[in-house]
Design a protein that fits this description.
The chain is α/β, with parallel strands linked by helices and about 300 residues long.
């Protein structure tokens, strides 16, 4: 088993050797298997908690270098509390078209910061924030509705965006927020997932939970947020959008299959689709080919 196949709530313990991570996963499986059959309600609570607990992976050196160029502030996002906001601004005076970066679950703005330098050089102001429970932002638990709420609040503060770029679950959040009225001329989704229930079911199976327990866990999450998982079906949201869109996906993505990006493209009228090779789920964010595709799309649709 590779590290990418270990659930996020195990992967976040970065200092543990791989064998200890696998032992931890085995222990979790044993606990969940037993609870699912002896106390299914407790098992559902446990699974819902694990599914909404984002990892906080180690920040890499290249991220620190890119983030050193950003202006950092903490801003209030309503009931979500204070979140960490980052801004890269061109040296030239005057208003600049604005691009928003939205990371995925267990990610942070710094993972997309490699896009900031070329975009700033091209005359864009680039902004982003660490979602609740991610990066330098507080809270322990977070889910897709928190991402959408934060996007809507940030957009209300910032005004319309020239483009929004969302990675993984951040892409699903962007599509949902656009459907709800967030103003943006263009959208770039990188490895967008189709439906959160798919990943909850995967986590449940990996941990030995019964289908009944997984269903109860979904119901608990939906009740907590007052929003059904169906509201976050990315192709359904994409089908009503009219922004120019680019969907990027790597053929070797082990976390979000290429077929999911294809479904989003098919639903989003006029969307462009670019498939990369050998970059996986996260290296695609910092590869020069990705930056070139993003810049080409923005130039073509300007």
């Amino acid at each position: 088993m590779t590290d990418s196949s270990v659930p996020s709530f195990v992967r976040r313990r970065r200092k543990l050797p791989q064998i200890k991570k696998l032992a931890m996963l085995a222990a979790l499986r044993g606990q969940m298997w037993a609870l699912s059959r002896s106390a299914p309600d407790r098992a559902a609570v446990r699974l819902a908690h694990l599914f909404t607990t984002p990892p906080r992976p180690k920040v890499r050196a290249w991220e620190r270098a890119a983030m050193a160029q950003a202006r950092y502030t903490r801003r209030r996002f309503g009931a979500l509390g204070f979140l960490s906001v980052y801004r890269w601004v061109p040296e030239s005076a005057g208003p600049h078209p604005k691009v928003l970066l939205m990371h995925g679950f267990g990610g942070r703005v710094s993972q997309l910061s490699g896009l900031a330098e070329p975009l700033v050089a091209a005359g864009y102001e680039v902004v982003g924030f660490d979602a609740p429970g991610h990066g330098k932002s507080p809270m322990r638990n977070a889910a897709l509705p928190d991402f959408v709420d934060a996007l809507e609040m940030f957009a209300a503060q910032e005004g319309a965006f020239d483009a929004v770029i969302g990675h993984s679950m951040g892409g699903a959040a962007v599509a949902t927020a656009l459907r709800l009225g967030m103003a943006a001329k263009r959208a770039i989704l990188i490895a967008p997932p189709v439906y959160p229930g798919t990943y909850l079911a995967q986590a449940g199976r990996m941990l030995g939970a019964t289908d009944k327990v997984t269903g109860r866990a979904q119901a608990l999450i939906e009740a907590r947020y007052g929003r059904a998982f169906d509201e976050f079906r990315t192709p359904l949201n994409a089908s009503v959008l009219d922004q120019d869109a680019l969907i990027l996906h790597d053929r070797d993505d082990k976390q979000v299959p290429l077929s999911e990006g294809q479904q989003v493209v098919e639903a989003w009228k006029g969307a462009q689709f670019e498939v990369t090779e050998g970059l996986g789920h996260t290296r695609i964010l910092r590869d020069p080919s990705t930056m070139a595709l993003v810049q080409t799309f923005l130039m073509q649709t300007a």
